[in-house]
Amino acid sequence: MRQGLQLKISQQLTMTPQLQQAIRLLQLSTLDLRQEMIEQLYSNPLLEMDEDIPESPGQDADPTTSESNQVAEAERNSEQNPEYEWNDEIPKDVPVDANWDDVYSPPTTAASSSGGEVNLEQVFQVTESFQGHLEWQLNLTPFSDRDREIASAFIDSIDSSGFIAAELSDITAHIHYDDIEDQLHEDELVAVLHRLQQFDPPGVFARSISECLTIQLNQLSPETQYLQSAKHLVDGFLQDIASVDSARLAKKTGLEINELQGALQLVRGLNPRPGESLSSNDVEYIVPDAYVEKIKGRWRVKLNDSNMPRLRINDSYSSLIKRSDSSDQNQFLKDNLAEARWFLRSIESRNETLMRVAMTIVELQRGFLDHGPVAMKPMVLSDIASKLELHESTISRVTTSKYLATPQGIFELKYFFSSHVSTAGGGECSSTAVCAILKELIGAEQPEKPLSDSKLTSMLEQQGIQVARRTVAKYRESLGIPSSSQRKRF
């Protein structure tokens, strides 16, 4: 093999840090982008808040007015109301025990004096935990020190649903006494457990579903109708309650049909997971990235930038940069200036791409905006990519974790992309539209005679939609709708 040198020209795509930043900003949601902009604002001295942007006419005014506006308002109010005036005469020598409010009392605002509405979004409610609620009841219940220690162990071992899954002896295994006669016994543990089972919410400290329902039934009034029949079902026929054959279940339990239906209705009103009623779940609110509304017969798209900080280049620092200076301070300013410019350019490019994608989706899905999911058209990423001359990966990044607020509700942008099924006329129908039609058909069925998957398939064929029975079953399960046998009512 002979060695040699040769020149070769080639092109390759290099992922520069600026390009990586632009791609990362493209797939951030509105909340994540806001956090990223705040971090850049704190880390880059060449960025500053742009507070000189004029306020839009439809935007609510800032409640914190400027100092000059407050003074002018105070002067106007002092002319109209003599009591509303500033106390300009402040004594030079104020006693030590004097109250500052008695000497200098600025006027109160109209909102505070008129008792305006409280902004509930600024009120934070501290909700106690499930175990804290039980411990509060324990402190109000007369227990001996020995029983209170056992009860505390039971409270620590309870799960989020309100059940005790472990054995009572295992829960209290850490409790030891020096005297053998003072050791804990099973009867003592059960006695403490029965007292705890009277706590709120009803059904807590149960060791099984049957015991949980029995505790709730025992707390009902003895005059409750069908109470004994409900206890009979819970004790021996809990697995058969979901049966759809009422005649067979009545024969098995020895109850009349009317009595069986009343007992079942009473059992269904119980809570099989009492602890979940007190569990604190943090609600995550969705902030839409864009809004769409109909103005003069045309759908308009508007980006949601109400909570976005408006950034700009700091003129004071940028003017200090000297092109011929190579000092460390000047190089530091140059690097941050280039980074700030690229960051603002990337945000602008991200918003422009998101706007184009949202407008194209709205243009193709006008039927959905006018008539709902039934009129959804089949659409894939390549449809938007070819229309905007972008790559499918770019469309995928733009539609990830982005939400669009429509008159039909708030939907993720990926919701508008769906597969298609064939129609009798040779066209295509969106799978989302098929699911919406199935939901309407099942919602209009008779409870005594629910529609089977085969019947739903034939009804869709009558509307020109050709789908297989297994496809109907798949769509039905994706909607969380049980089968026809499970939907049947007595």
UniProtKB/TrEMBL annotation:
Pfam families: Sigma54_AID, Sigma54_CBD, Sigma54_DBD. Residues 120-317 form the RNA polymerase sigma factor 54 core-binding domain. The keyword DNA-binding applies. GO terms for molecular function: DNA binding; DNA-binding transcription activator activity; nucleotidyltransferase activity; sigma factor activity. It comes from the Bacteria. Keywords: DNA-binding, DNA-directed RNA polymerase, Nucleotidyltransferase, Sigma factor, Transcription, Transcription regulation, Transferase. Residues 331-489 form the RNA polymerase sigma factor 54 DNA-binding domain. Residues 49-116 are annotated as: Disordered. One of its GO terms (biological process) is DNA-templated transcription initiation. The keyword Mitochondrion does not apply. One of its GO terms (cellular component) is DNA-directed RNA polymerase complex. Residues 62-71, 106-116 have a biased composition (Polar residues). Sigma factors are initiation factors that promote the attachment of RNA polymerase to specific initiation sites and are then released. Belongs to the sigma-54 factor family. This is RNA polymerase sigma-54 factor. It comes from gamma proteobacterium HTCC2207.
